[in-house]
Prior knowledge:
- It comes from Candidatus Adlerbacteria bacterium RIFCSPHIGHO2_12_FULL_53_18.
- Helices cover 56% and strands 0% of the residues.
- It starts with 14 loop residues before the first helix and ends in a 14-residue tail after the last helix.
- It is mostly helical.
- The protein contains three helices and no strands.
- It folds into two domains: 10-42, no CATH class; 43-76.
Amino acid sequence: MAVNAEVQKNESETAVNLIRRFSKRVQGVGLIQGLRKRRYYSRDKSKLVRRKHTLKVIKRREEVAELIKMGKILERPPRRGRRR
Length: 84
């Protein structure tokens, strides 16, 4: 949905007043609020994509556990959270 926020310069209007009027028009139309809402939006992944990713993670964890049992890699110590 495209929304235009257009203003025309009056005869005795300064550039500052024109910019101020344009800013008010943009706020009134709701362009900035809409952009901020959509800024970090990401679509939900499909069921198939989520399932594939989960299977991949499970397989990777099993491989790491197997390598730890064989002694080929060291087990990482548990991570400690930082207090704020």
